[in-house]
Amino acid sequence: MGNDTILKKFIANGLLYAELKELFEKCLIDEGFSSVELRLEESPVKVLLKVVNPHELIGDKKFKITQLQHLVASRLDVPESNVKIIIDKVIEKGLCPVYQANLIREKMLANVPYKRAANLVLRNAKFAGATGCSVTISGKLKGLRACTKKFLEGVVIKSGQPSKDFVKKHITTVVTKQGVLGIQVAIMLPHDPEGIIGPSSLLPDKIVVLNPKSE
């Protein structure tokens, strides 16, 4: 397999992931969609969805899961029986930037001031144990001139490999009377030795002093 074939395969998989993620974000807003994981090499193809309210999907009415399964099968060009959707619950929604960004969006659509909505998200992330959280809202917030407002709680690193491992981001938009506003939420996850709510590895600048061994 040549390099061009491998590159085309990676690009195709990336486009497929982006399309399905956008689909689930639009279809599972009420269920609190968080993330999606595709396992294309398995048979049947497995689609792992993390949502805040899984009971909305796995209750008595499974019509939405069947509908999503049909759409995924059509996009992959495989039989519907060869696609399996697995629903998992988000352990801590305060550490989920997708849910928190959509929360700001819903609050602003309900005419809640953007400062109150942003502070609510910062408080949720702090109570969930996040190391830090930042909220950026841009657009015509007041008047006819567009501006950007930033809100920060704690520490959110911006560069290096640790920022990719510890910081989770999500960007969404909301349509208001003034126009389209952009919302970005970045949450720095805490260190978790078990790797459940955060990375199991420590930050490079963290030094652990071990107790001396007794001879």
UniProtKB/TrEMBL annotation:
Pfam families: Ribosomal_S3_C. InterPro entries: KH_dom-like_a/b (IPR015946), KH_sf_prok-type (IPR009019), Ribosomal_S3_C_sf (IPR036419), Ribosomal_uS3 (IPR057258), Ribosomal_uS3_C (IPR001351). It comes from the Eukaryota. GO terms for cellular component: cytosolic small ribosomal subunit; nucleus; preribosome, small subunit precursor. Keywords: Ribonucleoprotein, Ribosomal protein. GO terms for molecular function: DNA-(apurinic or apyrimidinic site) endonuclease activity; RNA binding; structural constituent of ribosome. Coiled coil: none annotated. GO terms for biological process: cytoplasmic translation; maintenance of translational fidelity; nonfunctional rRNA decay; ribosomal small subunit export from nucleus. Residues 104-187 form the Small ribosomal subunit protein uS3 C-terminal domain. Belongs to the universal ribosomal protein uS3 family. This is 40S ribosomal protein S3. It comes from Vairimorpha apis BRL 01.
